[in-house]
TrEMBL record, chains A, B, C, D:
<dbReference type="InterPro" id="IPR003607">
    <property type="entry name" value="HD/PDEase_dom"/>
</dbReference>
<dbReference type="Pfam" id="PF01966">
    <property type="entry name" value="HD"/>
</dbReference>
<protein>
    <submittedName>
        <fullName>HD domain-containing protein</fullName>
    </submittedName>
</protein>
<dbReference type="InterPro" id="IPR006674">
    <property type="entry name" value="HD_domain"/>
</dbReference>
<dbReference type="GO" id="GO:0008832">
    <property type="term" value="F:dGTPase activity"/>
</dbReference>
<dbReference type="InterPro" id="IPR050135">
    <property type="entry name" value="dGTPase-like"/>
</dbReference>
<feature type="domain" description="HD/PDEase">
    <location>
        <begin position="50"/>
        <end position="174"/>
    </location>
</feature>
<dbReference type="GO" id="GO:0006203">
    <property type="term" value="P:dGTP catabolic process"/>
</dbReference>
<dbReference type="InterPro" id="IPR045509">
    <property type="entry name" value="HD_assoc_2"/>
</dbReference>
<dbReference type="Pfam" id="PF19276">
    <property type="entry name" value="HD_assoc_2"/>
</dbReference>
């Protein structure tokens, strides 16, 4: 059986599967499960094109790893077959620890970080594959001495980020967020086992930083995306509360177990977005009016009002909203408080200190981005405050 | 409230919503439901990028309608505001009658054609919108005398087809299927209320026909796509059979009602892909081993073997497979027979007779495609025979 | 005769010629001449794809004007047919005053600025077209009260710049310089007859500014481009000097007249890049060794050495080079001095003061770019110093 | 000095120069000369974007060769460094024998075919490079036993054709002519030293054939392109006739020598498009009214009338035109006859016999295109008759 398949990809044209183990891992039901986990949660309520899956992202990142390795080898960097295979394996599995609705429910419904879960699952797979994933795990955790391999998996310019920024820009249609992935990869090099960018790639990096900033505010922190996310979190908390009060939420048995706090890996690996949507669908008509309200809102796209501001919202503002909520929705103050989300998000265009992007100058020197860019002080931070709450009279 | 939104689209850049009624229809829960119905069913098991929804296709087709109208107006064709609004409405709703997994289950689980269901739903919406969809319905059914408006909704070169071919090519990454939508639209004109293509557009049409042929065989009739579809149909029949025998399939109440033969529109409008996937997920471990086998196969991508041939498969071949199935899977002959799918599909590059593509020559004459193309006899048909059955020892 | 032609364009797909006068102007021999003037001079010696002509740029800018007008009209801004026609005319002719090798020889061989020459030629055409260009000239010069029309021709975000940045990025293959022309135009609006950008377009503008910066340094001020330009200037000065000394340079009679100082418009309109290249070709073997050296260098791509630095070059450095030149090329000090070019170029990412890009906020307010962008202080300037001189032993 | 440069390319992104000899050949003045020879002659009078040079095409074809070699090596085909270097050299130089206005003047002004001239020049370069081009020449002429290397340089699916079809489609903006170069190359394989296409690539080949047909009629045989070509041929013949009659045409000394019949390689290598355009520019005002008429027509785009038909034009038609010409232009019948061009061009969609495109089936068999395509009989020929003559009253 030929396992060196070629897969069509709208972004890269073709994705090759260079090693048999990658094919075997892809065929594993734990990995197939990623087909049913969307890459950007419910962002498709804002950007209808953004229906792409974690499965596809993992494949894309693996493709970029393979391209990077080929490129670096072409520049004379020696990378053994074993290293190449392990780096591809590590990136293929880097997101396997994502659960229903990825980031949105991480930290609430899913107690552990997806990185930790990915590592746990890699270890479990390593057992199944008789230790064949040992080097991949070392590269993933950063224990392997050739640091650039880890940097390609998880660094300032890793292929994970290159793929997800590019893919999310592509599928949302936010073309301002497009990055020159190909060209960034062509500018990669390795000096003393560390990843560097060749001087000629400066402008590609500058555009990458700009695109990243744009994607952040235009997509990941888009106010409607934020509203949906908060509604989803509310709905799930509400389901959990119902269980705590010995109620029975209308969902699959397995999702029930998850809501009830079962943290087992075996359970986790059977869940995907479908379970969460199914739960929402069932709760559109439910005895708890708040949960019905939230479920219906998400499914029928009757979304919360979401406000973004460069200044914090006053306590007054939220107190007023609270009062209105109590009156309009006929709920108690405590419940109402759970429906108001406020907070802030901060990003930095480029942080000068840690995990710097380093450049290999034509004269052989290594210099950090900030010394050679002419963009001025790129450390400027942006903070946006959000206030998300039900539309009255919805 | 501003209802003239702009929506990002990976293919067209931006989609404008030119009339408020379109926004109101889009916000309707019946339409929002299309977000959870994939455009090409389970094709993503073959082409991982193909996760796009019917919702998105409907928006895209509406965009093309609006572009076509603008183009034709620019050429001096008078189209009233009422006509434009109705044509956009008709195309926005043309696929609203699609149910779970679209085409795959049409004719088996869903008894009516999606066109009939779309019309029924349009009538229901017309009631809700106080008759505001009257003209749209006339255009949809072809009763309106200005034929080109109907042709744009449903004809040889309608915007439905232009969008879905383009969109499916885009999301699958089968770039050979890409069509020059923009250029075809720019070549449209209207003579005596009939749609024509200007002579200069001949090559765009030729490439369109080629792309259509390629999409047909490369995507819609791809052998793996076919295998998944047949497995899905089997699984659903099996669920129905279980109900017939008073068994209780593990699915949502509503999906149960559908399986049991409830044809009501009210039920239909509450169902989407999630219900079908949820049912498959639940049947991975089920008392009926055949249904488990099928459900697990689809979800974990352990697919049936699929063979395509330009010649019919001999009876011998299928009898042999039948025997092997009975032995390997330990099932009775009757059951085994349900797991073997054979048949054929035929396409024609371009049919010279009905619904011809007509060209407006520079000298003002109207001539059919076959008279001005130099592609030779384009009526050639292709028939492919398929044989789909379980992999033994899967 | 149908003058409303459609022209294929690699960037925009199709370019329409919306008014007959535009067709007539395009057919005029003065305009056809722009086919033989390259848009970016000898930049193709660095970027082989950059062979595009001024002719094509003028068409492209006209296309963007027509798109902008359509867009603005769609938003309810009233623009009369006369205004639209005049704005298209003004932009079509805005660069007609370019001579051989455009910018490179402006200010040396060509004494007047190309803007002044364009205006002179527009007046001459206005006479030929019986005053039909009156309004176009007013828009071009900024005398017409509806300022946004002039801003579209010549402003911070004019269609001239949108086309040339986009076109130069496209043809050079410097994709980092790609701008979202389409999206910027879709975000245009007019308030009190002034051009504004809608708030949603902020990110498109940020990316535009970044792309502009990149194009500046990566293309227009690329060190090899600079070297060629300085060589060309030297060669032409040398030809002029030979005339001053009663020598006879080997070039066309007309180019000779230009070199000799004939500033007449009639002469100017007969010259193009061909005359300059022909002169270089003829001087590859010429009695003046310096001119031969320069001519051959340009044609055979034996280019000067070009150095860029963020710090000024010391006097020492250039004196040393001077000395070497005198010794190596066997020329006198004075001549050698003419072969060394030093200077500096400064750009600003975005200047906060004049001709600001203004945004129309969702709440109706008008605010300048710097108040709503989160890019930090975008006034940062970049200065680069160059030193261009012959390679020794070339 | 680093000779392994990276060159920006609008089509492929980056072009690498993999061997030093390629850089040295590119730097050679004979090769630099190709910068001044346009790839498609005066086609830019019809498609303003088509200003690309032979230089760029040669680079592009070399890039595709390098890609093909990498691809084939990745599939396990052994190709030595020497072979790779020679194949890249052969393709880089395959068009070096093109003269002013490429194909248009081949056979009239330039007596030899460009292939023969390319070979002559390769031999001359081989002397200069001390025999380093020996293998390249063998591959070019087909003497080298590993046939696929020659097939890549000159075969049914060579990289020359892949580049020029792609490049001409790109620069003209005739997107219907776009071919999937990347995908075709990815489908290449070698069996018994012959080039084959893998079965999966069938649709890419079908689209390639369609695109080729379209480019042929839409660009290479476009009626305006034809008109310009015939005018150019006329103008040059007229210059030759003037010399025969001891007249002195106004052109460069070297172009004069060429017109007078000097076939030396040394002369040929000093000429380019500039010489021809310069000659036209000078003859706009010339004692021979016919030559003036032609020269001015080309430069000011007052083109001949061009008619295409699927049926031959009757003798009557041309006799009538002849008569009108004599009367309108006041020329004698003989001269008039030289201004009327008639003839025909025939193409075949795909010729089944020679140099077949062969496919490597999944089962290992080798089968020709016509056996596996379902496009029907693809041998259909198209013949178009043209009649080109001066517009009366021009």
């Amino acid at each position: 059986m030929n396992k060196k398949k070629i897969i069509n990809d709208p972004i890269y044209g073709f994705i090759n599967i260079p090693y048999e183990i990658l094919f075997d891992l892809m065929e594993h039901s734990w990995f197939q499960r990623l087909r049913r986990i969307s890459q950007v949660g419910l962002t498709q309520l804002t950007y209808p094109g953004a229906t792409h899956s974690r499965f596809h992202h993992a494949l894309g990142a693996m493709h970029l790893m393979w391209e990077s390795i080929g490129l670096l080898r072409g520049k004379g960097i020696s990378i053994t077959e074993e290293e190449a295979r392990a780096a591809c394996t590590a990136i293929l599995l880097h997101d396997i620890g994502h659960g229903p609705f990825s980031h949105a429910l991480e930290g609430t419904l899913i107690r552990k970080s997806h990185e930790d879960l990915s590592l746990e699952i890699m270890h479990a797979l390593n057992d199944q594959f008789r230790g064949d994933l040992g080097l991949a795990i070392k590269i993933f955790t950063g224990e392997y001495p050739r640091v650039f391999l880890h940097q390609l998996v998880s660094g300032e310019l890793d292929v994970d980020r290159l793929d997800y920024l590019g893919r999310d820009s592509f599928y949302t249609g936010v073309v301002e967020g497009k990055i020159g992935t190909n060209r960034i990869i062509k500018m990669m090099n390795v000096v003393d086992d560390e990843l560097v960018i060749e001087e000629k790639g400066l402008y590609s990096i500058e555009k990458f930083l700009m695109a990243r900033k744009i994607m952040y505010w235009q997509v990941y922190m888009h106010k409607t995306v934020l509203a949906v996310e908060k509604m989803l979190i509310s709905a799930v908390s509400r389901m959990q509360m119902i269980i705590d009060k010995n109620g029975v939420p209308q969902c699959s048995q397995k999702f029930h177990r998850l809501l009830a706090g079962d943290n087992s890996l075996e359970l986790f690996l059977q869940l995907d977005d479908t379970d969460a949507i199914y739960a929402l669908k069932n709760h559109q008509m439910f005895s708890d009016p708040l949960l019905s309200y939230l479920s219906e809102g998400i499914l029928k796209r009757k979304l919360f009002r979401s406000r973004l501001s460069t200044k914090p919202f006053s306590v007054d503002t939220s107190e007023k909203i609270l009062e209105q909520l109590v009156n309009t929705l006929d709920i108690d103050e405590n419940t109402a408080r759970q429906l108001i989300f406020s907070g802030s998000e901060t990003t930095q265009f480029y942080d000068w200190k840690p995990r710097q992007i380093k450049f290999l100058m034509k004269d052989g020197r290594i210099r950090p981005f900030e010394e050679i860019s002419d963009l001025g002080d790129t450390r400027h931070e942006t903070t946006k405050y959000y206030l998300v709450y039900p539309k009255m009279g919805m």
